[in-house]
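Lab notebook, bench 4. The sequencing result for the construct came back, and we need a structural model before the next group meeting so we can plan mutations. Quick request posted to the team channel:

Model the 3D structure of this chain.
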Amino acid sequence: MTENHKEQKNVQVLIVGSGAAGLSAAIYTARAGLQTVVLTGPTLGGQISLTAEVENYPGFPEVLSGVELVAKFQEQAEKFEAELDYDSALKVDLSVRPFVVETEGKIYLAENLILATGSKAIPLNVPGEEEFTGKGVSYCATCDGFFFRGKKVAVVGGGNSAVEEALFLTRFASQVTIIHRRDTLRADAIVQKRAMENPKIDFLWDSVVEEVIGDGGVEKVRVRNVKTDQVSEVPFDGVFVFIGHRPVSGLFDGQVEMENGLAIVDSYMRTNVPGVYAAGETVDGFYRQVAVSAAHGVMAAITLTKDNE
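Done. Here's the predicted structure in token form:
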């Protein structure tokens, strides 16, 4: 797997991923005196960095942008001499120890590994979506719902996640429109019933989003009816996309025990491979909160430190 022309680097702890789990783990392993390198991946901070404003992270009553919160994580990790490598892992080999992790620029030989690659919302992949992410397009109602108080928002999707998030958004938004490509929801019956009975929720059936339109922020959505092909532009202040989340776990698929794309860990964040730990949305497909991921990272780091005493 290794390529001779790449620099090889031995490290005590390699953390793959730089979200809340990865950076929190780095703070603890580095503070414990273990040589720690964090592979940031394509986006420093992962999903947090996509959040326009964070106001529910304990200890920070002032509103921070996701980027600002990540910067604080980073500053604290680097204070304890954790090293950040702004590179992505291409391949890993967990069959040998030290574990072999190949990046674009080098090959790491890691005595211990923390997998914190997180998850990624499945995007619509339509024009305007990426441009307005954090400016009206969101993938997290509990993160961003508050900022749409009294506004009109669209929720794209028809499963449990979409309908539950739509119900949550009714706490803030004046109107929530569920846009679904079918004429019935896929959510559980009890969840559907709540949505149907909520006066703030209406539905655009048999419809798909083809474009998000605006000037500096979301203003409207171009929607196509899949049965009639009729296209319309509907005004919205925000678009919440809930067509699924996908763990970013292809890197170690088949090398650690997994279920539904999530690494399986014990209560101490150990995978089935000794020396390999996992944390955050690499193991959590339910909470998906910054505070929970940070806690997972701390747990993995403390376990790793104890295992190496």
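The longest strand covers residues 7-16.
Will bring this to the meeting.
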